[in-house]
Amino acid sequence: MASLSSLIKCSSVLLLVSILVFGSFVVSVSAGDLNQDFKITWGDGRANIVNNGELLTLLLDKGSGSGFESKNEYLFGQIDMQIKLVAGNSAGTVTAYYLSSKGSTWDEIDFEFLGNLSGDPYILHTNVFSQGKGNREQQFYLWFDPTADFHTYSILWNPQHIVFSVDGTPIRKFKNLESKGVPYPKNQPMRIHSSLWNADDWATRGGLVKTDWSKAPFTASYRNFKANACVVSSGSSSCASNSQTNSNSWLNQELDSAGEQKLKWVQKNYLIYNYCTDSKRFPQGFPLECTVA
């Protein structure tokens, strides 16, 4: 594994090249009117931004689900969203919240919330795609009821690693191991997407539990979006300058000792599936990032 100093050095070179090639850096910081940051992409009226832009709601009924995406594309960032998930019997439903680029070799960073029977815990499904390759799933139970109130789901994406966090608690870290031959998302700008849809062929107990449409419509709610990020505009972007080091500290942010301890706590107590330990799935050997991290 590359040393921390070498990773930081490599990221600094990457950022410098970005500045020279692409031009000025734009920082987006939003926490107000969701109309400024997002557009409804599908759902035939089932998705709405209300309360003067303070709240966005997605709805799923038997006819269709719904979804939205960010107006901006990002290349690295610290991105936060507060979400309140479908309450009650949500079996068969999936609320997806993720970053994704376009094309056949796309990059993607996923939160997916798999619905449940009333009283059963939600499963939080995470995944990372780089250059069109995914299959890097980790799944967790949450230590609270995600339907009773809003909770903050965060993605820190910088040249060193991707960190998934819930209410400020890290739950997963995917390191940049390009030096070991593992592709890492770093060149393709990504938009934020979210959707609420019916996936009862697989979402709950492998598809054994179907969606109870008598409980419809199902609703997920979003608020308090915030992004400190590199924004791609007209194909041009860069990631930092010396004058912005303080405001863009997330670009070189690592987990401190307290963060590492919280990550270990979650992985020990709430991790329920890890592709890096699934020997039945990978009988010929685990993916490279599982063995060199």
Straight-line N-to-C gap: 7 Å
Helix content: 10-25%
Q: Catalogue the unreliable spans.
A: 1-26, 240-245
For this entry, what is the oligomeric state of its chains?
A: single chain
Walk me through the structure.
It is a single chain. This protein has 293 residues and is mainly beta. The chain has helices at residues 4-22, 34-37, 257-269, 288-292; strands at 38-42, 48-50, 55-60, 66-70, 73-84, 93-100, 108-114, 123-129, 138-141, 151-157, 161-166, 169-175, 191-198, 218-232, 271-274. The strands form two sheets. It has an eight-stranded antiparallel beta sheet with strand order 1-4-13-6-7-8-9-15. The radius of gyration is 19 Å and the shape is globular.
Question: Gist?
Answer:
This protein is mainly β.
Characteristics of this structure?
15 strands, disordered N terminus, 8-stranded antiparallel β-sheet, 14% helix, mainly beta, 293 residues
Layout of helices and strands, plus pairs?
Elements: H1 4-22, H2 34-37, E1 38-42, E2 48-50, E3 55-60, E4 66-70, E5 73-84, E6 93-100, E7 108-114, E8 123-129, E9 138-141, E10 151-157, E11 161-166, E12 169-175, E13 191-198, E14 218-232, H3 257-269, E15 271-274, H4 288-292
Antiparallel strand pairs: 1-4, 2-3, 3-14, 4-13, 5-10, 5-14, 6-7, 6-13, 7-8, 8-9, 9-15, 10-11, 11-12
